[in-house]
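User: Can you write out an input/output pair for a complex, sequences first and structure second?

Assistant: Here is one pair. Inputs:
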Amino acid sequence: MTVFIGLLGCGTVGSGVVELVERRADKIAEITGLRPVISKILVRDIDKPREGLVDSSKLTTNAHDILDDKEIDLVIETIGGIEPAREYILSALRSGKHVVTANKDLIALHGVEILETAERHQVDVLYEAAVGGAIPLIRPLKDSLASSDITDLKGIINGTTNYILSKMTQSSISFETALAEAQRLGYAESDPTSDVEGLDAARKLTILASIAFTSTVQLSDVRVQGIRKITASDVRFADQLGYVIKLLAVGTDREGRLSLEVRPSLVPKTHPLAHVSESYNALYIRGDASGDLMFFGQGAGSLPTASAVVGDVIEALRNLQLGVSGHSQHVYANHKPAVPSRDFLPYYMRLSAQDEPGVFAQIAQVFGETEISMSNVLQTPTEDGHAEIVVVSHKASAEHIDTTLKRLRQIEQVIDIHTVMPVES
Amino acid sequence: MTVFIGLLGCGTVGSGVVELVERRADKIAEITGLRPVISKILVRDIDKPREGLVDSSKLTTNAHDILDDKEIDLVIETIGGIEPAREYILSALRSGKHVVTANKDLIALHGVEILETAERHQVDVLYEAAVGGAIPLIRPLKDSLASSDITDLKGIINGTTNYILSKMTQSSISFETALAEAQRLGYAESDPTSDVEGLDAARKLTILASIAFTSTVQLSDVRVQGIRKITASDVRFADQLGYVIKLLAVGTDREGRLSLEVRPSLVPKTHPLAHVSESYNALYIRGDASGDLMFFGQGAGSLPTASAVVGDVIEALRNLQLGVSGHSQHVYANHKPAVPSRDFLPYYMRLSAQDEPGVFAQIAQVFGETEISMSNVLQTPTEDGHAEIVVVSHKASAEHIDTTLKRLRQIEQVIDIHTVMPVES
């Protein structure tokens, strides 16, 4: 039997989906008993030249050709952004169509509305491709890890910033140079704000944390810090100390209190996350029974992301064939409070100060008085005659570090505190 | 509603399962609508003192108390080995009971018989815990990756050998010393043959390759080489060249011809598999659409392995509740032929020779004549007055390397060729 599919959007991911559904149709029919056929494709410009397997007779610029088509049982959304994607998806769900989407923004911001609508109409809405490209993350979190309480998530889930930080590390170049290169190669958009400020990672963390911690997580629960302030000297100091700098999305559940952060961090070179380079993504998970798990793979790209979409199509078709659609949604009734992290971590701080006798003693005294000991100190002269000082503290709470920073800023000879990052173990 | 479970075996994994089912019963009931209760436990010695949550009134030494109990709908097998586990599982399946097992030996050797029996009786048999402990491997391979043709598997799937090789690397000690330490700490058995000779990894590769390559793979299809011959000097030379030595289970599908090998290999320090240390396991997968994926986690241990078992229990209960049991089996009708690998890889060779003028020229000449060029050469004097020579070749086929080795052995001054390992990229 054939299942007709409507595809909304035919850009990078959409055209990959067209290719992959075509290529895998026999295999999917064998696995699920249902043959997927993309019968209509919504595009903005019907006359734009298209490569590959896109059949121009299927193109339409009118979403209603798909949403009102009673033959279509499944809609794949790869338009991205909030509107009109949200309206289209809600309309599809209301008319009993299953939905597969790669839209992280939409799920992060309107996930509850969409999942509840799907539940009400007993249809599936699946979004494995919204986070981590080809890497299966949502299904493992939902399924296998139901046997563990997840206490920690730690992920590299934004390819653009990981590319930039990898380049800064490999080639000892500045943030600006690395960003320009990423833009030239198409890894960063012309307006890179959403990526480099950590907002994209924050949206993905919202989705992952909801599932991992079985709570309705809001985007506003996530504290966000980007990578714009990271300099070549931070990268160099980190390297000397045995670390690499990564933009991490971190979520913890400590007895029902969540802490959710996106922030640059020092990752030990011996940690598996340290070796997730360029546009790869990875998610580290700690469960009370499972222990530490990591999932790694291509975080973006046409075919990798399409492979996650098609994986969801296969699940939706299998559910349809078995008559068990609409059971995979998870809207969590409880909203666990989000609080600043109380975990004790070492912190990396880079500051500049006047290169005068006694300055270092004053800095050391502040650490002593706030009862934070230093595990590593590096001091180097700068070109303009100042001293650049890097301190790595022993484990302390974020609150404790804040007090120390406030006291350090009161020292007259301290010119500026440039960077403060937690150190992962 | 309650589902009664019979547990066969209550050792390391079994007692973890008892603890975890108890701890997670509410959560599982919430997810699946069915409450799991372990009602009977088969043990060898009923009087043995047991810690934790094992209720002694549930113990029995007679398997028929479980297999003939009509109240029991699901049987968990954690005895290990072939018999009587095989007979118990087949009997359970024949009486319509679902089975979850952690038994890699049984699935590797009798998987087809067991899966066919389950299919005939429309019940589930699930074995996520058989490979990779807590790491979800079988479900991602089956589900998400149905959208990709998998061409390559590369895994560190034996914790004992990984522990030994990690210790040899970290502490520059011999294989024998590292093995003795592993035995002392309980990471290696008193008879370590199955682990150090690569047989355990070969069995797990048989299971993974069957699923990844959708073919009935036989254990005899796997070429196996263990780590007994790896010396401290191999580890040191590898390190100098930028590699670590890992026992890899490697499977490739080249247009329907499989190549399956377990063998020590040189892994570049920049490769994610290089950082899988001690008792961790990892599986690297390459799919035509998904690109490269890696799954990493605890490969053994009571609770990690139990978490995989309980994950399967949850799947079986969910299927039971939805009335869709018996659809997750995969017995593959086709048997893709297993052939020696024809992939071109660089090879590492360590040999000893008389430290005489002209010997090195002869060795270099053999490489020249067999048209294999050398990318790296290290020569060091040994304590007994010989020369130890390490050569890393450019990419060549295994067949080509065999010819070179044969020719090298014919050189009079070549004393021995100690180690030959492929180099991963």
